[in-house]
Amino acid sequence: MSSAPTTLDFTNIVGLETARQALLLLAVNPALGGAAIAARVGSGKSTLVRAFAALLPPGTPFIELPLSITEDRLLGGLDLEATLIKGAPVFEPGVLARAHGGVLYVDNANRLEPSVAAVLAEAMSNGYVRVEREGLSAIQPARFLLIATYDPEEGDLPLSLLDRLGLIVPLSAQGDAATRAEVVRRNLHPAHDEDESNMLRAMIVAARELLPRVQLPDDHLAALVQTAMALGVEGNRADVFAAQAALASAALEGREVVDEDDLQRAVRLVLLPRATQAPTENQPAPQPPTAPRATGTAEEEGEDETQSEAERPIQELLLEAAQAALPPNLLDLPFAAQRRGRRGSRGQTLNARRGRYVRAVIGDVHGGRIALLPTLLAAAPWQPLRRAANEKRVHVRRDDLRVKRYRDKAGTLYIFAVDASGSMAINRMREAKGAALRLLQDAYVHRDQVALIAFRGQGAQVLLPPSQSVERARRELDVLPTGGGTPLASALLTAWHLAKQARERGIAQVTLVLMTDGRANVGLHAPPGDRQRLREEVQQLAARLRADGVNAIVLDTQVNYLSRNEAPQLAQWLGGRYVYLPNARAEQIANALSQSAQAV
Questions:
Q1: What is the DSSP secondary structure assignment for residue 270, as one 8-state letter?
Q2: pLDDT at 417 over 80
Q3: Per annotation, catalytic residue among 98, 143, 201, 237
Q4: CA distance 284 to 280
């Protein structure tokens, strides 16, 4: 799995300047965690990363991770040959442990199996891998830099992995004719400049030595944080990455204090790819007021303008640069696109014969598939006693047999909680029923289930318990009651009970779809008319659903001129998505929910 030789030096690859800059920052500051490079097929991104390996200090591990890697090769496992010879379990380190202190490279990383991506994300967070399988128990250090390249047109990286990579190089436009011609020339006649490569290595070593002494002024740090907030960047991890990138940039340039260029580089490589919104017009810091002055000469006025530009707040300059670099469509950025979907992996349950193999247990081979390695591992310690003199056969008995257990996808439970009060109730119930039926048509393939709750009057009623049957849904949803008050708290409590029951049956993924304007006027215990108590009940129940990991989507059915922002507030309490659909159609609802349930 070592990298293949490359015909081009790091400095001779054309058209990937931003990616080259990101890799140099990563070489200087390992605290950045890694880099994601998005580029189309044939752009040279893989060649650039492999050439980057030659700039690393001698002896630094550089390992390429194949997409087809198995879990035992990733984490480590039993060395069967050594175990049988020794008569005791012998552990063989996996790829992650072998990458400790170096670089792990994944090409086409968006095609990684979700389970492999999850293991990578966990290892990057912990700095080690823990192996508890096949009778083995081991902890191996695994601190490495992860470089992931991919074509975003073929799919995105999982957010759990992307979030742990400090530097993100977004997809750039294809070069002009002159650039493409230069790429061809350099491939036809590759030049190897050892002096330039040595100079880059020396720069990296010097920057690493300088890095601990580089200072980030407080006002510069505040500007980075304010820019992150203006761009809608979520979490503090991005703030830390931005600061580390600015420090690395200054060290690479030989400066002991971070300046504006370093901040702009950090914004471009860390914050902008994580943007989920464009800064509003009133977010840039205002210019400081200036005292009236008399009119001077043109030369004096030019000097004053230059001075005014230099005195502008650094935050305002960063925001202007960020706005200029934002793409026309924010959904072209990885975090904006995926946060909008709020996608999550489907639940999983243990299954005897299909799914992903997760462990071996003692059992009857007639009731499952034999697990060869665990069986041999169980038999290995007894071989010296079971073998006759000079006999080389392995003796396996019934007590040694182990069978495989698999983890199978259990699908998603969609809980429709529909406000059946008010003048729009009939329309809401009709479209909710249509969306439920559309989802149930695919339930057999995805193992999804659908439930429907109507809330009106004094409480909520389960009209359709969790089901995969289209015919049952049509039969039980034939009559849809409407009218009365809005017991929103009762609906949330009923949905929480359904979600809890689903988890007990092995369904880990639950999505609550609330079709409502968010206005509650009937509580569980709140006195009639006590709006504060009603609000507190709804907020507490929403927090309970959020804490239990229930995904939520609030479909606002209220027209704009009547809305008092109750539905957006409800979505915020639930930690879910808010969608304004006053005239929602069944097909729109079903499509949105199907997309949100796709596995990361």
A1: I
A2: yes
A3: 237
A4: 8
**CB-based burial label for 132 (10 Å; 0-12, 13-18, 19+):** exposed
Distance between first and last Cα of the chain: 26
Q: What is the helix, strand, coil percentage profile of the chain, to 5? A: 50, 20, 35
Q: What is the pLDDT of residues 11-53, one digit of tens each?
A: 777 778 888 899 999 999 999 999 999 887 777 788 889 889 8
Q: For the whole model, what pTM was predicted?
A: 0.56
C-alpha 233/C-alpha 228 separation (Å) is 5
Q: What 3-state DSSP class applies to 552?
A: strand
510's CB contacts (< 8 A; 6+ apart) are 412, 413, 415, 498, 499, 502, 503, 549, 550, 551
How far is the CA of 347 from the CAs of 119, 257, 412, 551, in angstroms?
17, 49, 6, 12
For residue 237, indicate whether it is catalytic. yes
Residues 6+ apart with CB under 8 A from 93: 76, 140
CA angle 165/168/171 to nearest 5° reads: 145
Q: Which residues pair with 206 in a beta bridge?
A: none
Q: Which domains does the chain have, with CATH numbers?
A: 10-188 (3.40.50.300), 214-279+311-340 (1.10.8.80), 349-407 (no CATH), 411-596 (3.40.50.410)
Cα–Cα distance measured from residue 25 to residue 28, given in angstroms and rounded to the nearest whole number: 5
pLDDT: is 485 or 512 the higher one? Answer: 512
Pick the more confident residue, 379 or 494.
494
Do residues 362 and 402 touch, judged by C-beta distance below 8 A? yes
- Does the structure show a pLDDT above 70 at 364? no
